[in-house]
Amino acid sequence: MAEHTQLNDAIDIRTTTRAYDPEAIAEDQARQLSTTIEAVNTLSGLHLQLIRDCPDVFAQANASGHFTNARNFIAVVGPKHSSEGKERAGFYAERIVLAATLYGLGTGWVAGSWDATAAAAHCSIDDDEELYLGITIGNPQEHMRHLSSAFESLSAAQRDHRDSISVEEAIPGMTPDELDSAPDYLIKGVRAALKAPSAMNRQPIRFSYDPQSGEVRAGFAPEATGDHLFNDLGIAKLHFQIGAGGGTWQWGEGAPFIRA
């Protein structure tokens, strides 16, 4: 039986939102988000920021139909040229995405479908920092209908939202017998990781498990390429940690998971 926690619920219902209601984010929601972002920045050493009412950043994407009414974003800012910074950004910014999901807001990670130069002009970025990515945020179109939907309906929509690789594909090299006898937390963690967003939905993260030592590690699929692999790694690690019911990851590709 799956653990029932708020963060697990958020994983089960989160989908990428492309169509937003033109209504502004409510002030109480904005305050909740800002408080969450401040706490996450303190923990992570990042410089995440909520930027509101900047339609110029998404003018072309809105005009093309890639987005509808996108105008707010979370700026994912961290240290320059830092793979660990990008991994931390994926891990901690996705924590904000899940919080926003619980607040009833829609979100979507953004890499290329925005004007990054215009976005940076709205942000506070120190000389030793860079803008990694953005996360669109706002009320989903027809959000009152969305908020009134039953959890089961939202969860079903998440399952049908996109194709996904299997647990077996996500833990390559394990035999069927090894999978059958694998600890429950491993399977729950991987299933949660498979619900994580990734660039172009490539799902480039793979897990390994050593039955002798009980050690779990996360890294990249052999064929994985792209600018956002470490960001994807951080996001997948957070989802795994939540699904597993606790524990701590070390940073880096191939780094181990320390079971709580």
UniProtKB/TrEMBL annotation:
Q: What is this protein called?
A: Nitroreductase
Q: Which residues form a coiled coil?
A: none
Pfam families with a match to the protein in the record? TM1586_NiRdase (PF14512)
Which terms in the Gene Ontology molecular function aspect does this entry carry? oxidoreductase activity
- InterPro entries per UniProt: Nitroreductase-like, TM1586_NiRdase
List residues of the Putative nitroreductase TM1586 domain.
Answer: 7-244
- On the tree of life, the source organism's domain of life is Bacteria
